[in-house]
Amino acid sequence: MKTIYLVASGDLRASANQKCEAAQEALEKTLTAVITREGYAVKRAHPFVAEKGHGFIDSQKYGMEVFRHIPTDAPLIVAEAVWQYSHHLLAGLTTHRGPILTVANWSGTWPGLVGMLNLNGSLTKARVAYSTLWSEDFTDEFFLSGLNAWLKKGKVKHDVSHAKPLKKTKAPATATKTGKALAQRLKREKAIMGVFDEGCMGMYNAIIPDELLHPTGVFKERLSQSSLYAKMLTVKDEEARAVYQWLLDAGMTFKLGTDEATELTEAQVLGQCKMYIAAVRIAAEFGAETIGIQYQQGLKDLTPASDIVEGLLNNRKRPPVFDETTGKELYAGEALPHFNEVDECAGLDGLVTYKLWRELGYAAENTLHDLRWGRYYQDKTLKAYVWVFEISGAVPPEHLIGGYKGVTSVRQPAMYFKLGGGTIKGISKPGWIVWSRVFIEGGKLKFDTGLAEVVKLPKAETEERWRLTTSEWPIMHAVLQGVSRDQMMARHKSNHIQVVYAPDKAAARNGLFAKAAAMAELGLEVFVCGKV
Questions:
Q1: pTM higher than 0.90, yes or no?
Q2: Any idea where the domains of the chain sit in the sequence?
Q3: SS in 3 state form for 420-482?
């Protein structure tokens, strides 16, 4: 029997790995049984470690150790039932010569598909050949036929005909002209991207090399999260409380308690308010037009979560922040686009989107989400595959039903956020959006974009989707136009997807082509996805 090696990347945080161990074991048991029935043996390349309470590869160091004992020409499966740090495996995968298959479960609760998409994006950027599959129970024909192809040929081919080069589409002339002009201005005037430490959670795919970024007119200002923390210490208590009061006056609800370990407290919120003020002041000091905070390494051990900070920065209507010396309001009347988890691909996208949407006269607030999960939904008015887009709280209130009045801030899950902090929880308003993703392939910047309709689902369906994913986080119910579930998974090179609203479908189409033209003018290879 030919032996197939299996590895499983996990989180850096032991608490997350321990909680997700059972789900990973279940996936591997089912997957191994299917492969064994096909006449192959499966060898797990690393054991369950009793002292750790899990069997994941939980560091880059450990990943290198594991790969030293895997034959370089052996068939290899990366099986994921959880969120994972791609750099734990990347060193070994870059030198592996056997066929590689990434496999994920299809679950909202155990986001293997999210972790796998990040790994796929990282492998694509690193120019590592791989195939990919996903399944709810590993018994469906789509999965079985794909697995059989990989076992026999070492490759799986997917239908990605939904993605067409921009030059093969009929782009409106006016939109094209607007987009090109915006891009030419950006290249001429240039802009600064403030980066508070790169490489959040092993997201190799989220780092744009300088030589690819500079031709777009955007240049990084490399900042440190230690500087952000130091600046927080200079913010006065009364300044933080003024931000908090502004949010209360705007209608935001905070679910407060007293237990710091399990509940959201006022002290946590005030800490987030100080971070918000500190971030704006540092951005202004360095002239940044967009910033990204890593948080999950470093700051997670010092401060409450950064998510409220990020959502406020992405909103044009937000608490005012004043210069410490002059008293002048900073970025008055404007958002300061924030790219969650220092995803620089989202940062470039968000900056271009913000500038262009302001030019078009549309509401310019935009954000990334995780492409978290989805399932088919049907009632009297809707029959569609509805995706769950969700991110850890960093959504602008402008995107939510009711704005600030529709926001309920609850404590972040202790498994990932031991020092707590509130989220911006709410339901995204119905309407038309343009979705997109900047990614790196073949040493080039590329750009996928398409249309989606955000739909309103019944309360019971929304609540169940929250229960099956992460109930503390803001949610978007999205119906992609002309792109199936499997096409999206096969092509998308990230766990993240950028979204921005437009006034209506026609405006969304106009904005899509304007942004496509802008990205092409900036030097990106552009693909229009699905029905536009």
A1: yes
A2: 3-153, 167-529
A3: CCECCECEECCEEEEEEEEEEECCEEEEEEEEEEECCCCHHHHHHHHHHCCCCCCEEEEEECC
